[in-house]
Amino acid sequence: MGSNSCPEGFGSGRRIMIVTLALFFALVSGGFWPGSGFAAGNVTISGSTMLFPLEQVWALAYMKSHPGTHISVASTGSGFGISNAANGNITVGASDAYLTKEFRQRYPNLVSIPIAFDDAQVIYNIPGLDKKTVLKFDGKVLARIYLGKIRFWDDRQIRSLNPDVRLPHTRIRVVHRADASGTSFVFTDYLNQTSPEWFNQVGRDMSPAWPTGSGYNGSDAVVAAVMSSPGSIGYVGLGWVMEYHLTTGALKNLDGHYVVGTVENIRAAGHAALNDPSFPDDFNRSIVWNIHGKNVYPDANFEFWMVNTNLDAETMKTVRNLVMWALTKGQASRYTVKSGFAPLPFRPLKPRLDKIINRLLPGNGFNERSPG
């Protein structure tokens, strides 16, 4: 169960990207959307490797239209994004994981703001299998693979879910994240809710005690490992699947349907969650598994930006304008869908976002009476 970094030359351009942006943005009226204003400064966004592809596209769009403010975007893992935002080392932390009760107690100065939908997908490299073949997985079988109890691709438990697929007697090479990862949080959330074995032995975590397999730092390294290792299995977000044309599996959802992770099916999961009257206004609840619907992908999640409420006023203004852009113009399909994310439904979300930005950040640049 070693830890590995990304092989040299693979994905290095995606790990860290520094861009120059300007943040001059006229906001629409109503609710928390204040009048036009100008904010300039330095912003550092760091964290989720799953979210990184979208942040790159957003950054480039800003760079093209608004020169002036310096913004750095880094792919470091959700764990680092959360902790560094809380400690004041970065301006915005990016995370695939919501703020659980434990996180809220540990980091009371953080506020999480949903900015897109994404998912965790199972990827694999099986010799002799047509790349267009979509294997079916349920949580119990996936958990037993990641527990080291299913060791070969032609195991009867895998074949029982895929009776029409001829699977080779190839040893399964388990690949997982080694760093504190929101993608791991989302992936193990699915295992935790569908497999009693996983629930009792490992659980949901950003850094679980993996019983087997090889660990890699970052989604790019996971992709490289799976692509270069015959017999391997791993997990990444849809953005990485789209960029590298990866073979992915279909996961069994709550209603018994096997669903692949597409933008439409991720959106179906998110919209179903938001239509639940009991869904919390602060978004601090998993949308993995417990969502009904034929086309609902069962391992979907909100992507979050974490903001430290102790930021100075000028920086908070800059962050606010950036968040406003991400939640409005940034939701356009040319940014979200093309990057492998589902856009947020603005109208149903607006009242909840009002509460987050106005009430959870009193006295800061998010206050609706702030001049901008």
TrEMBL record:
Keyword Ligase in record: no
Origin superkingdom: Bacteria
Sequence ranges assigned to domain PBP in this UniProt record: 36-259
Keywords, sorted A to Z: Phosphate transport, Transport
Pfam families: PBP_like_2 (PF12849)
GO cellular component, one term: ATP-binding cassette (ABC) transporter complex
GO terms under biological process: phosphate ion transmembrane transport
InterPro entries, alphabetized: ABC_phos-bd_PstS, PBP_domain, Phosphate-bind_PstS
GO molecular function: phosphate ion binding
Family: Belongs to the PstS family.
NCBIfam families reported for this sequence: 3a0107s03
Subunit-structure text: The complex is composed of two ATP-binding proteins (PstB), two transmembrane proteins (PstC and PstA) and a solute-binding protein (PstS).
Function: Part of the ABC transporter complex PstSACB involved in phosphate import.
Annotated protein name in UniProt: Phosphate-binding protein
